[in-house]
Write a structure and sequence with these properties.
The complex is a heterodimer of chains A (about 220) and B (about 300). Helices cover about 30% and strands about 30% of the residues of chain A. With about 220 residues, chain A is an alpha/beta fold. The termini of chain A are far apart. Chain B has about 300 residues and is of the alpha+beta class. Chain B has helices at about 10-30, 45-50, 75-85, 125-140, 155-160, 170-175, 180-190, 195-200, 220-240, 280-285; strands spanning about 35, 45, 60, 65-70, 90-100, 110-120, 145-150, 245, 260-265, 275-280, 290-300. In chain B, the strands form two sheets. Chain B has an eight-stranded mixed sheet with strand order 1-5-6-11-10-9-7-8, sandwiched between helices. Chain B has a three-stranded antiparallel sheet with strand order 2-4-3. The chains are: A alpha/beta (about 220), B alpha+beta (about 300). The interface between A and B is medium-sized, with 26 and 23 residues.
Chain lengths: ~220, ~300
C-alpha cells in the first residue's frame, strides 16, 4: 500500500525557473525558497520537485507529480498522457529551422537546394512530425547540445532549435528560416490527479490563471 | 512480441504469473456476466483489415508473399467480423490479447490488453452495461476504487455545428484527444457565437451530475438532447454505486466512437485503467444496424 503524499508539483530547473517563480509568488501558494542543491522541497501542504525541463512531462505522466510546469517544446516532444490546461505566457520563444546565412536566406531556397534535408536537433520527434506533415524528405540527426555547430561542420544542412533573441544563431552565422511553433510555459496535470485530486488541481490552475492575468507584459522574459 | 525484462529470470516468471492471475480474475468476472471469450490473432491478412476502415500498422510478408498486418486495434477487427456474420442474439464478447502499437518513436510496442465488445444489446441499456462492466474490469485489474468520467462523442461537434463553428471541430477534437486543452480553447476563441463561447468555457470543466441541470440551457440544438441523455446515464450509473463525473472535454483518440464515451481511473494508477464507448456508426459503415459498444482495459 502506497503512503499518501502531499500534492506534488514538478518545476523545470534552468532558464524558465525565474519567470515561473515570479508567477508562482503571485498565487499565494507556499512557493519554496531557492532550493540550492535540494531537488525535492516540502513547503506547507505542497511538495515541489525540481527536474530537468525535458523531464517534467515524464514525471507528471508517471504520477510522481500531480502537476507540473513544462515548456511547450518539452510537451511537443514528449507530451502524451498529460493534460495541458493553462498557458502561463512565460519564457516565450520559438522553435525554428535555421541554416547558414551565407548559403540560404529563404526557406524555399533551402528546400530547393536540399531535396533530402538533414536536420540536426534536440527535438527529433517534433522535427520528424514537421517533415511528415509538410511532405518534406529528410533525415534527423539527433544531438544533445551545441546544435548550432552541425551546419558549420557539415553534419547537417540545418538545425531545428529554440530561438529566443537570435543572438546565438547570429554568433554562429545562422539565420532563422522557418518558425515551427511558438513556445511558452504550460501548466500540465496528470489525468488521474485531475480526477482524484480535482480540488487541488483546480485551485492551482485558478490561482495560476489569476496570477498570469496580473503579471504585466514584459515582467517575464520574452 | 512481449518484451522480457532484463536481469534475473524471476522477472520473467513474475510477469507470466501476474498475467495468468489477471486473466483468471477477468475470466471469472466476464463469465459471471454472460460474456464469451474470443481469441484474437495478432497478425491479420491486410485485405481483411482494410475492410475495417481503421488506420494502418506494420506489415510483414509470410512465406508465400502474402501481406500480413500487425493488428493495431481490437475493436474494428471484431466489429467487421460481427457485421459480416448472420444476424444473431445479442453478443457479449471479451478478450485478453497481445497488442502491438507504434509508439511515439515509431517503434513497435508490445503489450497485453483486455476488453469487451457488446453487440445488439437494447439501446436503452447498452451504454449503462458497457460503462458498468468497464468499471468492474478496472477494479479487478487495479484492486482499488475507481472513478468514471463520462462524455459523448456527439456533444461538442453538435454544439459547434449549432453555433456555426462546425468546421473547427476536427482541429478541436485532435487537440482534446492529445490532452492539449490550451490549443482547443485557442481554436474556439474569437468565435462570436454565444454557444461557441459556452463550449470554450466548458472545455476544461468537470461536473458532478448533481449540478449539471443548470448547464442544460447552455447547449444549443441537438447538443442539448445529447447532454440530457448523458445526465440520465450518469444518474443511472451513480445509482448503481459508481463514482461518476460528466467531463465534456473528454475525447478519446479512436475515430469510431459515435455516442457516450467513458474513461475509468484509479487513485494509484497514473494512466487511465479503461476507456471505451458506443460505436454504432462503425457497424453502420458495414451496412449493419446494430447497437455496438466496447472498452479496453490496460492490463500491463
Amino acid at each position: 500500500m502506497k503512503v499518501p503524499r502531499p500534492f506534488t508539483v514538478a518545476l523545470p530547473s534552468g532558464r524558465l525557473l525565474p519567470d515561473i517563480r515570479k508567477i508562482l509568488c503571485g498565487t499565494g501558494l507556499p512557493v519554496p525558497a531557492e532550493g540550492g542543491r535540494r531537488l525535492v522541497v516540502q513547503s506547507g501542504c505542497m511538495r515541489w520537485v525540481f527536474c530537468r525541463p525535458a523531464d517534467v512531462p515524464a514525471v507528471v505522466r508517471a504520477g510522481a507529480a500531480d502537476a507540473g510546469i513544462a515548456g511547450k517544446d518539452a510537451l511537443l516532444e514528449d507530451g502524451e498522457g498529460v493534460l495541458e490546461v493553462l498557458d502561463l505566457r512565460a519564457g516565450a520563444c520559438r522553435l525554428s529551422v535555421a541554416a547558414r546565412g551565407e548559403e540560404f536566406s529563404r526557406w524555399e531556397d533551402l528546400l530547393a537546394a536540399r531535396p533530402v534535408l538533414r536536420l540536426a536537433t534536440k527535438f527529433p520527434r517534433t522535427a520528424t512530425r514537421f517533415l511528415e506533415q509538410h511532405g518534406i524528405g529528410g533525415r534527423i540527426v539527433p544531438l544533445h547540445g551545441s546544435i548550432e555547430i552541425a551546419p558549420l561542420i557539415g553534419l547537417a544542412d540545418a538545425v531545428v532549435d529554440i530561438v529566443a533573441t537570435g543572438r546565438t544563431l547570429r554568433a554562429h552565422g545562422l539565420v532563422e528560416l522557418r518558425v515551427l511553433e511558438t513556445l511558452t510555459a504550460r501548466l500540465v496535470l496528470n489525468p488521474t490527479s485531475a480526477r482524484w485530486q480535482d480540488e487541488a488541481c483546480g485551485r492551482l490552475a485558478e490561482r495560476l490563471a489569476a496570477a498570469v492575468q496580473r503579471t504585466p507584459e514584459g515582467a517575464v522574459t520574452p | 512480441m512481449a518484451p522480457v525484462d532484463a536481469g534475473p529470470l524471476d522477472h520473467w516468471f513474475i510477469r507470466c504469473d501476474r498475467r495468468r492471475e489477471l486473466g483468471n480474475a477477468l475470466w471469472r468476472l466476464f463469465s459471471l456476466h454472460g460474456y464469451r471469450a474470443v481469441d484474437l490473432p495478432l497478425l491479420v491478412p491486410e485485405e481483411s483489415w482494410a475492410r475495417t476502415g481503421a488506420g494502418s500498422s506494420c506489415r510483414v510478408l509470410d512465406g508465400r508473399g502474402r501481406v500480413l498486418l500487425i493488428r493495431p486495434d481490437v475493436t474494428p477487427w471484431i466489429a467487421a467480423r460481427v457485421a459480416a456474420a448472420p444476424p444473431s442474439d445479442p453478443l457479449r464478447l471479451w478478450y485478453f490479447a497481445e497488442t502491438a502499437r507504434t509508439g511515439p518513436d515509431g517503434q513497435l510496442e508490445a503489450g497485453w490488453q483486455a476488453g469487451a465488445e457488446l453487440f445488439g444489446i437494447a439501446p436503452d441499456t447498452v451504454d449503462r452495461e458497457a460503462a458498468l462492466m468497464a468499471a468492474r474490469a478496472a477494479r479487478t485489474v487495479a484492486r482499488t476504487p475507481v472513478k468514471l468520467a463520462l462524455s459523448d462523442a456527439r456533444l461538442l461537434p453538435e454544439a459547434l455545428k449549432a453555433a456555426g463553428a462546425g468546421t473547427a471541430w476536427p482541429a478541436v477534437r485532435d487537440a482534446l484527444a492529445a490532452g492539449d486543452r490550451v490549443r482547443a480553447r485557442a481554436l474556439l476563441e474569437g468565435a462570436d457565437a454565444w454557444a461557441t463561447r459556452a463550449v470554450a468555457d466548458l472545455v476544461g470543466r468537470r461536473l458532478p451530475p448533481s449540478c449539471s441541470e443548470s448547464f442544460l440551457e447552455a447547449w444549443p440544438g441537438e447538443a442539448r438532447n445529447v447532454w440530457r441523455h448523458l445526465v440520465a446515464l450518469a444518474e443511472v450509473l451513480s445509482s448503481a454505486g459508481e463514482d461518476v463525473a460528466l467531463e465534456p472535454a473528454l475525447v478519446l483518440g479512436r475515430w469510431y466512437y459515435s455516442g457516450p464515451v467513458f474513461e475509468v481511473t484509479g487513485p494509484l494508477h497514473p494512466a487511465p485503467l479503461a476507456s471505451g464507448g458506443r460505436y454504432d456508426a462503425l457497424l453502420a459503415t458495414a451496412g449493419r444496424d446494430l447497437t455496438a459498444a466496447g472498452f479496453g482495459v490496460a492490463a500491463a
